[in-house]
Description:
Layout: H1 3-26, H2 31-34, E1 38-41, E2 47-50, H3 56-83
Antiparallel strand pairs: 1-2
Amino acid sequence: MDMQTWRNSRSRADDATNALREALAALGIPERVQQRLRPTVTHRGTPLVYLGMIHAEHIEQIAEALRIAAEVRSLTAAAQEAGS
Length: 84
C-alpha cells in the first residue's frame, strides 16, 4: 500500500473514532470507555476502529441507542414514502 492510501485510510479511521467518541459522550458513557477506542489501518488499507473490552452495561446503552436510531430511520422512511 502506498503512503497516500495509508494516510487516507488513517484519516477515515480517525474521523470514525472521533464520531464514535462523540456519540458515546452524548450517551453518557464514561470517558474511560471512550479512551479505549483506537483508529487503525489494516495492511490492505482498510480503516478500522478497535473498540477493546467494554462493560456489558455500556454495550446495552449503545445497543438501545442503535435500536432507537433504527426505529427513527424506519419511521422517517415510511413517512417519506407516504408523502410521495
